[in-house]
Specification:
It is a single chain. With about 120 residues, this protein is an alpha+beta fold. The chain has one domain. It has two helices and two strands, in the order H-H-E-E. It has a two-stranded antiparallel ribbon. It is elongated and about 45 Å long. The termini are far apart. The N terminus is likely disordered.
Length: about 120
């Protein structure tokens, strides 16, 4: 039982760190003068934040990122913001390429079909 507790605590810390990174990305974007307009954010049904989407390639490339999504509650996504859900996003490609980059994303879901 002693071995299970540290592993459980590490999982909570990893998710907590991911949420904190997503929160920092969202705050930075909202604080910029050309950030997301407040009225557009108020109309969104869900918000997806991916902190540090990594892209890399040496002939064969890939991208990978982890983030969080939160949606409005209620029948037509008009209520308060709900609890966040964690997710991972990844892909692969092939072709003439070399390099890497890290990018933060904030995506707004504006309709029920997208949600």
């Amino acid at each position: 039982m002693v071995l299970v507790c540290p592993a459980f605590g590490a999982g909570v810390t990893r998710e907590q760190n991911r949420l904190e990174a997503c929160e920092e990305v969202l705050k930075e974007i909202l604080d910029t003068p050309d950030g997301i307009p407040k009225d557009l954010l108020n109309e969104a049904e869900c918000v997806i934040v991916i902190s540090s989407m990594l892209k890399f390639a040496i002939g064969i490339g890939g991208d990978f990122g982890r983030g969080a999504i939160t949606c409005r509650t209620g029948q037509h996504f008009t209520g308060r913001w709900g609890a966040p859900a964690m997710f991972a996003l990844g892909g692969a490609n092939i072709g003439f390429q070399l390099g890497g980059q890290a990018t933060d994303f904030v995506l707004l879901v504006m309709n029920p079909r997208g949600a």
